[in-house]
Specification:
single chain, Rossmann fold, Dihydrodipicolinate Reductase, domain 2, five-stranded mixed sheet, about 25% strand, binds NADP nicotinamide-adenine-dinucleotide phosphate
C-alpha cells in the first residue's frame, strides 16, 4: 500500500487525482492539502507527496518532504529558476519525480521529438505550439518548455539564446537557429502540443492532444508508487516508464 498526500487537492488536477486514486486499491490518500492547510501536521502519515498546486508552494512542500524523509512527485509547473534550484537541491536527500507532463502519450511525444530532430537534421525550422484552457495561469506550458529543451539539446544550442516567444511587427526573416514557441489559450482545452519541423517542400508535425486530466493523474499516481523506496535522486516520467 502506498500512502499519499495530495497538495492542491481542491484544484482541477487535485479533484481528478482523488477520483483516480480511489480506483487503485494499492493507493491510500492519507491527507488532502489545500491553500492554507498545514502539511507539517500530517506529513508523517504518508510515504509520498504528490504536488499539483502552485509554483510558489512547491519549494516549501519539498523542504518538508526532505525533513521527514518522504518521496515527492512534482506535477506543478511554472517555477522560476530559483524555485527549481531550491527543489532539485534536495535530490541528495530524497527521491523526487519531476515531470512537466505525466501522460504516457506525451512522454512518447518527448521521445519521438528527440528522434525526429536527430533524423531530420539542421535544415528544418523548429516551432512548438501549445493550447490550453482559458484558466491556465502560466505560459508557456511546462510541457512546451520541455519540448523546446529537447529541441535545443539535440541541436546543441543554448535555449535562452535561440528561443522566440511569439512574433510581432517587423521581426525580419526567420533565422535558421531560432526555436519558436507559441501559447494559445481558450475554452476548456485540457492540453494540445504540436512540434512543427518545416523545410522547403515538406513539413512534419508531431501532435498530442489530451482530452481528459485522468491521463496526467494516473501517470502521477504510477510515479508515486514507483518512487517510494528509490534511492535519493531526481527522476522523471521517462524513468518511471522505463524509456531511458
Ligand atoms: N505535470 C502534469 O502532468 C500536469 C498536468 C496538468 C496540470 N499541471 C500543473 O498542475 C498545477 C495545478 O493545475 P490545476 O489545473 O489543477 O490548477 P488549479 O485548478 O488552479 O489548482 C491548483 C490548486 O492548488 C491550490 N494551491 C495554491 N497554493 C497552494 C498552497 N500553498 N498549498 C496548497 N494548495 C495550494 C489552489 O488553491 P487556491 O485556489 O485556494 O489558491 C488550487 O486549489 C499547475 O501548475 C498545472 O500547470 C501539470
Amino acid at each position: 500500500m502506498t500512502k499519499v498526500i495530495i497538495t492542491g487537492a481542491k484544484g482541477r488536477m487535485g479533484a481528478v487525482l482523488l477520483t483516480c486514486a480511489a480506483r487503485i486499491p494499492q493507493i491510500e490518500v492519507v491527507a488532502k492539502i489545500g491553500s492554507g492547510d498545514d502539511i507539517s501536521s500530517v506529513i508523517d502519515k504518508c510515504d509520498v507527496v504528490i504536488d499539483f498546486s502552485y509554483h510558489d508552494a512547491t519549494p516549501k512542500f519539498a523542504e518538508i518532504c526532505a525533513r521527514h524523509n518522504k518521496a515527492l512527485v512534482v506535477g506543478t509547473t511554472g517555477h522560476d529558476a530559483a524555485q527549481k534550484t531550491q527543489v532539485t537541491a534536495l535530490k541528495s536527500k530524497i527521491p523526487i519525480v519531476w515531470s512537466s507532463n505525466y501522460s504516457t502519450g506525451v512522454n512518447t511525444l518527448f521521445w519521438l521529438t528527440r528522434k525526429a530532430t536527430e533524423i531530420l537534421g539542421p535544415d528544418f525550422d523548429l516551432e512548438v505550439v501549445e493550447m490550453h484552457h482559458r484558466l491556465k495561469k502560466d505560459a508557456p506550458s511546462g510541457t512546451a518548455q520541455t519540448l523546446v529543451e529537447i529541441l535545443a539539446d539535440v541541436r546543441k544550442q543554448e535555449l535562452a539564446k535561440v528561443i522566440r516567444h511569439g512574433r510581432e511587427g517587423l521581426v525580419g526573416a526567420r533565422t535558421p537557429t531560432e526555436i519558436g514557441l507559441h501559447s494559445l489559450r481558450g475554452g476548456d482545452v485540457v492540453g494540445d502540443h504540436t512540434v512543427v519541423f518545416a523545410n522547403i517542400g515538406e513539413r512534419v508535425e508531431l501532435t498530442h492532444k489530451a482530452s481528459s486530466r485522468e491521463t496526467f493523474a494516473n501517470g502521477a499516481l504510477r510515479a508515486a508508487q514507483w518512487v517510494v523506496g528509490k534511492a535519493p535522486g531526481l527522476y522523471d516520467m521517462q524513468d518511471v516508464l522505463g524509456l531511458k
